[in-house]
Amino acid sequence: MPVDASHEKTLPERRLGCAFLWSPSLEDEAILRTDWEELMELITFGQFERISARLGRHLQIRPKAANGRSLVASHNADGAPTEALPLGFYLRQSFTARILRQQEFVDG
């Protein structure tokens, strides 16, 4: 369900869009799979220093923590226990915007 979450608007001024079910095209699915596999490889091998929001064409990984003190148990590149910021996968804003534009075209 699209939600207008503009910070410039107060909560009562924000709008809800019509809910819809989205499925990726074969091309988008392949790109998302490639992004996922590349990002998961970095996580699996503890290469957290190489992770940035710039990686991934449609899918990006970003910290989920409210601040740098929120750490979770992890392993570094050598397999030794360590702590790292919790991470989350997000669709890029440009990709999400394209999905929403396509939906409006179909409905409109």
Poorly predicted spans: none
Number of helices: 2
Beta-strand share of residues: 15-25%
Q: Characterize the largest beta sheet: strand count, sense, and whether it forms a barrel.
A: 2 strands, antiparallel
- Could you tell me the mean pLDDT? 86
Description of the structure:
With 108 residues, this protein is an alpha+beta fold. It has two helices and four strands, in the order αββββα. It has helices at residues 26-44, 93-107, and strands at 59-63, 72-75, 81-84, 87-91. The strands form two sheets. The chain has a two-stranded antiparallel sheet with strand order 1-4. A hairpin with a 5-residue loop joins strand 2 (72-75) and strand 3. The longest helix is centred in the N-terminal third of the chain and has 19 residues, at 26-44. The protein is flat and about 50 Å long. The two termini are 17 Å apart.
Keywords:
about 110 residues, two-stranded antiparallel ribbon, 2 helices, flat
Please specify the SSE layout and strand pairing:
Layout: H1 26-44, E1 59-63, E2 72-75, E3 81-84, E4 87-91, H2 93-107
Antiparallel strand pairs: 1-4, 2-3
Summarize the structure.
This protein has 2 helices and 4 strands. With 108 residues, it is of the alpha+beta class. The longest helix is centred in the N-terminal third of the chain and has 19 residues, at 26-44.
